[in-house]
User: What shape does this take?
Amino acid sequence: MLTALAVLVLSLVPASVPQYDWDLDGRITTADLTAYDACLAGAPLPSPAHSIDINGNDVYPEDADRTTLISVLTGGPDDTGFIPPLCPSCPVLTADVPDPVPPSFTLDLGPLLSRLPRETHLGVTGTPGVILLPWRSTPYTIALPILDSGGTPGRPLILAGIPSPDGQRPSLRISGAAPVGIHLSGNVSHLVIDSLHLIGTPTHSACIRAFGPVHNILIQDCILEGSAIGLSVEGLTMPGAGTVRSHRNIYLRQASSFQHNQGNYISACQFFSCTESVFYDTGLPNTFNQANYFVAGAGRRILSHSFVRNPGFAGVQARGGTYSITSNIFERCGNAIGIGHPMSYGNIPTGDFSSNLVLSPKAPGWGLAI
Assistant: This one.
């Protein structure tokens, strides 16, 4: 089922556990992750009872602490082909909004999602359909539900923008009350997000965030602008997320002093690929801010035929997994490609790091660091 929530919160543990209530609002919600990330980036701790060493193993900061916190907050076989981008036989709903959009207008997809049919026959769940968002001269403000289900392998749920005649994608500003723009929970499978321009502020955690074992997700022809992270995939623990693909997307100005900045942040994902994409100014100048941060762990990660310019530090940090980092251009990177972990943490990275072009490096000027 799809649940319409204007504010993306999920409370699963008692609020009496102080080390998890990082925004001090008396509740344990996904907003606490944003406050925790701010502390990782240097903000003061909320109280003496808080420690960034969430798992209490005296190793910090480390990726495992963040994974432990996410598990508290949120508590399939791999596909190799692209999800079909079109579904001619699926029901189509188009958002009915005024043009120009009034300043106070908020687009709520909940009613549209509730109108999509969900039929079961012969043990196979029918495709819920297609939601189309037309371009408008004024950006939408979005109140998106948490998406917690999708389509079927050959017939995904499609959330797509209808571009303007000159090719501009519909712009969706993330609501100030929401930590992220589009939130995918662990039950989402077979979903396409197509031709949208998501716009966040430095206080937003991510344009798109996926928690848990999501699978067969395609994000294509989108612009992910602002927020601390463009696309965050956090499968928690392996096997974690299944297949997630980013294709022909633009990552633009991920910049936040409240938490570390990344174009892609990928953790505990069996298969992730980013192809034919562009990364501009992904991160404030800081060695913790990258265009692509692949957390230590098993899984296959691909970055190919993409252009990375002026990340906070690295074009790619390949902490662990099996890689194909090929045929990319890295311009003005402090470190174009980093392979491994300085403390030998997690899985040893292996794979192909070839046919990449490094241009005009900035300090410290590393093309490749192992």
User: Anything to note?
Assistant: Helices lie at 31-40, 63-74, 110-115.
